[in-house]
Amino acid sequence: MQFLETLRYYSPTERKFITDDPHGVNPDGNWNNPFSPIRQLDDGAGLQVFANHDPVNGRDDWGLMSSFRNKSSITGCKDIGVWDTQGRSGNWGVVRANTHLIFGGGKTVEFNGKSQFSNYVQNTIDGTIFKRVDEDIEGLAKFWSESMQLDSERRFQTASLPLNNFGYYSGGDWTLSGTIGNGGDQGDGRLSGIYSSVDYKPVCCLHKSCCRQGSAQLEVRCKIEITLKDKFGYFYVGTELNKFGTPYWTVIHMFHDYNAKLEVPCN
């Protein structure tokens, strides 16, 4: 999937966008009509940067973050024509991967509008297939978080910013470049709490053939919405922080398709 960079700046002082919408949807800077990158880029990735908000803790005073509000179709799914469900979410915090997909039970991935795999395929298909799907989807979320290099140690070193209380994702797990405490090392709380997170919501549909001689053909189609949130992140550091104010957040939204055809044991 191509990563399409789309930046737009919002001034909390002027209460309006101070740069044009890169796609021309709202070029006049009217902040009442927030930019929605996913709707404009379809299945591509979209990036937004805005100040003085806290998307990790749900603060979005001006409605600038459109995460998990977009509808998207899943190709080849008769029972889910438009994705209008919230799905299930998994989230990695800065300190460690604190909420993984729950393997086998299907509590994270939503199949055919149901939150439990067993509700749909009980006593029909071997549950190990769901572990594989869960692992694959988890791997996609990890791949994108690592590819985007949220809060990488190299970036902060290059920008001569303090490394205390920043976390980054590297080598399959979250790593701390400093120590996260109850307060911030600047004395005003700016560097306390969560700084980067990966949130993903997969919705899937499942088609299976009849069980013949102990095996069945299984087709899985999923669309995964992934949001990466990063305080001060990406490459807007140093003078840019002073220019636009702090705290600054980078939010990346994207959709990712996952399709699999498998032969599974059944009874």
Describe the secondary structure blueprint for this structure.
Layout (H helix, E strand, L loop, with lengths): L9 E2 L4 E2 L19 H5 L4 E6 L38 E3 L17 E2 L5 H5 L6 H21 L4 H6 L8 E4 L2 E4 L19 E13 L6 E17 L7 H6 L3 E18 L2
Parallel strand pairs: 5-8
Antiparallel strand pairs: 1-2, 3-10, 4-8, 6-7, 8-9, 9-10
What key attributes describe this structure?
267 residues; alpha+beta; two-stranded antiparallel sheet; 10 strands; 16% helix
Report low-confidence residues grouped into runs of 5 or more: 1-7, 21-58, 62-71, 79-126, 149-194, 232-247
Would you tell me the overall average pLDDT?
Answer: 48
Q: Mind describing the biggest β-sheet?
A: 6 strands, mixed
End-to-end gap: 38 Å
Order of helices and strands: EEHEEEHHHEEEEHE
Range of strand content: 25-35%
Number of structural domains: 1
* Strand segment tally: 10
Number of helices: 5
Shape: globular
Evaluate the radius of gyration: 20 Å
Structural class designation = alpha+beta
Helix share bin: 10-25%
How would you characterize this protein structure?
- By secondary structure, this protein is of the alpha+beta class.
- It has one domain.
- The chain is 16% helix and 27% strand.
- Strands 3, 4, 5, 8, 9 and 10 form a six-stranded mixed β-sheet that branches. Strands 1-2 form a two-stranded antiparallel ribbon. It has a two-stranded antiparallel sheet with strand order 6-7.
- The radius of gyration is 20 Å and the shape is globular.
